[in-house]
Amino acid sequence: MINTSRASPPGGGRLSVSDPIPTSPRASCLPSDASREPMTKDSSNNCEPRADSASEFLSRRAIMNMITTTAIATAAIPTVAPAMPSPESARRTDNKLEKLFRRLELAHARAQELGDQARRLDDDPRKAACKATLSLCWSRELDAVILQRLGWEEEGDDISLNPSALRRLQSLRFKRHDVEDRVTELVAAQDELDALDLELGITAADKRYEDALEVCHRLVDQIKDVPATTLEGLKIKVKALCWCRTNDFGQIDQFEDDCETTDLKLAVSVVSDLLAMNAA
Fold first, then answer.
1. Alpha carbons 147 and 133: distance in angstroms, whole number
2. Are 136 and 182 in contact (CB under 8 A)?
3. Using H for helix, E for strand and C for coil, what is the string for 177-231?
4. What is the pLDDT of residue 87?
5. Which of 83, 87, 103 is nearest to 223 (CA)?
6. Average pLDDT, the chain
7. Calpha distance 187→193 (Å, rounded)
8. What is d(CA 2, CA 159) in angstroms, rounded to the nearest whole number?
9. pLDDT classification of 280: cutoffs 50, 70, 90
10. Rounded (5°) CA angle 214-217-223
């Protein structure tokens, strides 16, 4: 939606070209550069301030004349269209984007491999019991008391507390001993889970995965900063955008679900068209 509103000048009301300019019959007959006679205290209706002896009043019509003249003069200045890149320059840009994208593909494959390794370690059967203990359910009275105390709103789904929530839970005090016992059980399960993560090397595996993802993000930043000068360059940028949204170079479905306004839907339409061109 185009915003047609105009900002007000500093310290005053808005001055619009369409605002009527009140003038008296006498003022309308004067030439545009004629000075208006300063009004004295005894003048009719006392509608204008008194002029200093060393200055003259500048009428609103004169101001509008100056604005109009300036606008016409500015519009008359010829504009120079930006020069199109030469074919050689466009090829160099495309080559740079292609090299960055190949590096992004390799970095993404490495990150996927490290992520799979971390997930396999996380599937260790010994961790299942700890995770089950750490799962709180609204249908269990003790869990409901704890979740309400933590400020959760009932949604019907099971909730797994993260370490920060558990640390906060330890600082709370409950009047019921059975609730306190449940809190102790949760803390013990988290401690056991942390020990298993350390033993299995999951913490280190997660760190390697996060570092690999950071390499991908840096490459996407570099792709973003290289201006695309051809259709092929635009396709590379679109694939990088898809990766940011869906972790896939050719998938845009999740992106479409997030768009509700027409401008974003149009942007997704452009991305989808470029993806279709790339697949053709």
1. 15
2. no
3. HHHHHHHHHHHHHHHHHHHHHHHHCHHHHHHHHHHHHHHHHHHHHHHHHCCCCCH
4. 74
5. 103
6. 75
7. 10
8. 45
9. low
10. 150
**Cα–Cα distance for residue pair 194/67, rounded to 1 Å:** 71
CA–CA dist 264, 258 (Å, integer): 9
Degrees, nearest 5: CA angle 70-75-78: 130
pLDDT bin (cut points 50, 70, 90) of residue 3 is very low
Alpha-carbon distances, residue 195 vs 168, 235, 240 (angstroms): 20, 46, 38
CA dihedral 242, 210, 110, 127 (to 10 degrees): -110
Is the pTM higher than 0.90? The answer reads no
* Residue 136 Ramachandran class (φ > 0 left, ψ -120 to 50 alpha, else beta): beta
Q: How far from 246 is each of 54, 81, 103, 155, CA to CA, in Å?
A: 71, 38, 18, 27
Residue with tokens 């003249």: 69
Quick one: residue 81, left, alpha or beta (phi over 0 = left, psi -120 to 50 = alpha)? beta
- Separation of alpha carbons 32 and 24, rounded Å: 14
